Amino acid sequence: MLADTTVRATGGHLLDLDHAERDELGRLAAALATRASRRIDDPEWLDAARELCGLLPLRLRTTLRRFTSHPGDEAMLLVRGLPVVPADVPPTPSAGGSVQRTASVPATALVLLGAFMGEPVAFQEEKSGALVQDVVPVPGQERVQGNSGSVPLTMHVENAFHAHRPDFVGLLCLRNDHDNVAGLRIASIRNALPLLAPAHRSVLREPRFVTAAPQSFDRGGGAGTPHAVLAGAVEDPDVRVDFGNTTATDPAAAAALAELERAFEAVTRTLVLAPGDLAWVDNRLALHGRTSFAPRYDGGDRWLQRVFVHLDFRRSRAVRPHDGQVVTSAQVTR
Ligand SMILES: O=C(O)CCC(=O)C(=O)O
Ligand SMILES: [Fe+2]
């Protein structure tokens, strides 16, 4: 592996909430957390989140809004200082498929920011379709290529196989691993593209790749219809690849895919998240993965909470029963 740059602060899209903003966000999240049924997945509770997200601190709203339109070369935004009080964080769950259905303050803050950016969405076949999911190591699953593992997690676009993959992925740190070494790895196509030869770029724009669902999805089956890895503007394309689940359909495509993986490795950054850090990844432009770490399964392990956001809710309507937040997988290509 090429050397990573460990980034504890990043230029451009970094917002460190000050004390007043932290208090404001904490109060708003606490008020919403106790509203109605306190059930995040309940449509009425989410309606309350949609209303209250307009009251988020002004600098936070401005930053989120700017980021959704201009994700920058890194295609990520780090917001620091979300309401996570280490002494109040319960033991890290260790069961597979663990989710947050009841509105805790951190999960509520995460949903408030997601609801400001767009529509929080989930996938029926992944973590039972809950809007806020735990990213925690699970005993016996150390080698799984998914968020329950603790070996290095291969760089990927989230749900790259899916037509309605998220536009943004939000990962909020409640607790890092015991050794404080686990890192979220991020790499953007805007940084990787200049490293690719024109011939490889052309091949990557052709439907010569197939992508299977990740292990976190309750599904088997094939890898779907061939798709391009790069799409849209030639000079500023979107990317769709999961280096653990995407395969090329011919040798020239395989060579281009290998070059792309090398280019991404060269521009990957590692973020060691601290409690209260929330990383937003633009899933159209950036890949993410994770370094390895050593879980202990003693309640003190690494714990992130995750939410997915769509910018155009209508586009997935055909696969969201009752116009709800949960995408079924009836249609998996586009
Ligand atoms: O554990 C991490 O830092 C990232 C895991 C991941 O890829 C995800 O939760 O989507
Ligand atoms: Fe992921």
Task: Chart the SSEs and their pairings.
Blueprint: E1 5-7, E2 14-16, H1 19-33, H2 43-52, H3 58-69, E3 76-80, H4 105-117, E4 119-123, E5 133-135, E6 153-156, E7 168-175, E8 184-188, H5 189-192, H6 198-204, E9 209-211, E10 230-231, E11 238-239, E12 246-248, H7 251-267, E13 269-271, E14 278-282, E15 286-290, E16 303-310, E17 326-327
Helix pairs in contact: 1-4, 2-4, 6-7
The chain binds 2-oxoglutaric acid and fe (ii) ion (FE2).
Q: What is the quaternary state of this protein?
A: single chain
What form results from the Cα inertia axes? globular
What's the Cα radius of gyration?
19 Å
Number of domains: 1
CATH topology: Double-stranded beta-helix
> What would CATH call the class?
Alpha Beta
